[in-house]
Amino acid sequence: MVTGRQDRAEVNMMAVPGTRPGGIATSRAALVILIAVGLVAPLVVVQPFPRHVLIMVLVYAVLGHAWNIIGGLTGQVSLGHAVYFGLGAYTSTKSFILWGLSPWVGMLLGAVVSALVSLAIGYPFFRLRGFYFAIATIALGETARIIFLNLKAFGGAVGLEVPLSKGNPLLNMQFHSSKLPYYYIILAIFIAATLLVARLKRSKIGFYFRTIKESHDAAESLGVDTFKYKVLALAVSAVITSVCGSFYAQYLLYIDPYVVMATGISTKICLVTILGGESTLWGPLIGSALLVFLAEYSRVWLGGGGRGVDLIVYGVLIVLVAAYQPKGIMGLFDRSNRRMSGGVPANESA
User: 20 to 30 Å CA-CA from 208: which of 102, 230, 245, 249?
Assistant: First the structure.
């Protein structure tokens, strides 16, 4: 039920930047161009490793979109999203091993499981704010990883191997001769996630999310049910993350708690969004392109001796972003556009 205070909140929130008709048209044009480039890219990049890099860029771009909903739009910094990634991976893999269910069905089951878990933890976790909420999500991620390490039914530390199937490749999401089908599947997931986030940002629910981020107390004073919308944001974010986890399990054909539930995955999901530009539509893709290219190529060029170099560079980049450009790389684009149009950025007018 919408109250009078909620009506006033909507009027105030309509002033949120980035939702102007011109901005929407630009976003649509950018999406069309991106889809066209995305469809053609693997036909130009034919070597297996570059294609693998493209797939991983899209995987983390989708994960960045998912984190953006709870962290970027709603302002709730979660550092335990690997839990939902792992739940999606384990649910689809285990249902395929036990019952022979198609990974597509397992993907839906994983999304349901992740949504239920997010709802279950929402009630206690959203009583916390700021750093306390972030710390609680770290504890959740570590607890889940340790539990799965000791669950023999899910392979424990040994992990699970996805059985190879000789049936319909698309139905079983197994393509043994080429990475191309995996690329187009994750591209479709990325486009769907982008459209969902774009729609969400322009919706009434998206306005509520932004209000909660700007001021929790002010949102409540305007009649916004903050608990309800924070739980909703977490559930949507968990579902998208879980879908990505199911895809990743089918892509690797092997999972264990270190592969799909590591704290490093949660950190990387957060980093790609912050580096690219939180609460922006294209920030996750830009951040993912930079960080995944850096990680994958440093791993190949430096081998085992270069392990951890990418994490050092991550840290340097985040310090630079925090010190000089808190809005991420998208903030640089925004500043350049304002200068070219003769405007003065708000943060420079003071």
Answer: 245
**What's the token pair of residue 292?**
């995944």
Count Cβ atoms within 10 A of the Cβ of residue 72 and give its class: 0-12 exposed, 13-18 middle, 19 or more buried.
Answer: buried
pTM of the predicted model as reported, rounded to 2 decimal places:
0.87
Helix or strand holding residue 198 (H, E): helix 180-202
Q: What is the DSSP letter of 325?
A: -
Please name the residue ranges forming H helices in 14-102. Answer: 21-44, 48-67, 82-99
- Residue located via tokens 């709802």: 119
Q: Which residues pair with 46 in a beta bridge?
A: none
pLDDT digits (tens, 9 = 90+) for 180-225: 999 999 999 999 999 999 999 989 999 999 999 988 888 888 888 9
The torsion angles phi and psi of 161, rounded to 5 degrees, stand at -105, 135
Burial class (CB within 10 angstroms; exposed 0-12, middle 13-18, buried 19+) of 308:
exposed
| Angle, vertex CA 17, rays to CA 80 and CA 347, nearest 5 | 85
Strongest mean pLDDT among 44-53, 148-157, 217-226, 238-247? 238-247
DSSP symbols for 85-109:
HHHHHHHHHHHHHHH---HHHHHHH
Sign of CA dihedral 204, 208, 214, 217: positive
For residues 115-140, b (16+ Cβ closer than 10 Å) or e, as one string? bebbeebbeebbeeeeeebbebbeeb
Q: Are 97 and 166 in contact (CB under 8 A)?
A: no
Asked if 7 and 222 touch (Cβ cutoff 8 Å), the reply is no
**Residue 286: how many CB atoms within 10 A of its CB?**
21
Give the phi and the psi of residue 283 in degrees, each rounded to 5.
-55, -45
